[in-house]
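INFO batch 0412 | record 1 of 1 | parsing
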Amino acid sequence: MSASNLITRLSGGVAVAALCLTAATGAFAQEDMPGEGVTINMAQPTWDTGYFYTQIYKQMLEELGYTVEGPSALDNPIFYQSVAQGDMDLWVDGWFPLHNTYEDDFSSGAEKVGTVAEGGALEGYLIDKATADEHGIDNLEDFKDPEIAELFDRDGDGKADLVACPPGWGCEEGIEHHLDAYGLRDTVNPIKAGYSASMADAVAAHEQGEPIFFYTWTPNWTVNVLKPGEDVVWIEVPEIDLPESTKGLEDAATLEGVEGCVNDPCALGFPANDIVPVANSAFLEENPSVRALLEAASVPLADVFEQNAKMYEGENETADIEAHAAEWIEENRAEVDEWLTAAREAAS
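INFO prediction complete | emitting tokens
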């Protein structure tokens, strides 16, 4: 064999080897980043207590190579219509059974998939412990008494001012139903302004020693700042009476072991909720990695409580929440990597 032929043969071998290496590297990259080239339109609710785990899921999706637009803050009805139509791809802030009322809006084109947190998302009514102890208040029915209601009157109309839910939130339906079911329209005024601002006002009132009356849910910064059993107490409802969207779940509206409740078990009047992702079905079909991630991942409620407290203390800008999520991911890297591996395997 001539020297020139030998060089040609060797050069050809190098080229083939390089081609094989390039192909293998490309396959690995595609397998490692199954979302490369795909944009996800992600939403989040208009309440901020879920922004932390929304950011966790967003950053995990980005680790899979997806470009995530948003998350855009949407009211419940708009999101559920948008995700069914494919204008939005997903959010991780479905509260069920609270959001059962929207299932007709989204079930034709979207679905629940996975669970962020199971069973521990509570709802109910609280008052300051000092007033509860002094006046023996332990039930929502006590507010039918005008003298009790007047204790919580902050605008001079004689009615108890209840920090309630803004229009369009799922909890609005339950509160409005209770006001009618328990005959409280004449003595209770539901405040439906911005929830965070209304609760900040209630916290300030409590610090001044004034009675306060509010609805809340968990996880939420409110129960970090106003601790049940110390600063406030959960009060019960006279009987479990649910709106149409949650009929049949009466047993789930009385729970054992609710810290800071006036009784155990505690008749909160709202079924405990699972926090679950909701995503467009066609999008999930085209992106099995997203489905696998949503099915595998979860965030402990205790971690959400802790982060929500940071938000109340001032770390509430988008950059702060992004940093909280990134820190959580690194602190839970081993488990996160397992979820990401499952997502990558789903694409293969």
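INFO post-check: The two ends are 45 Å apart (CA to CA).
INFO record closed
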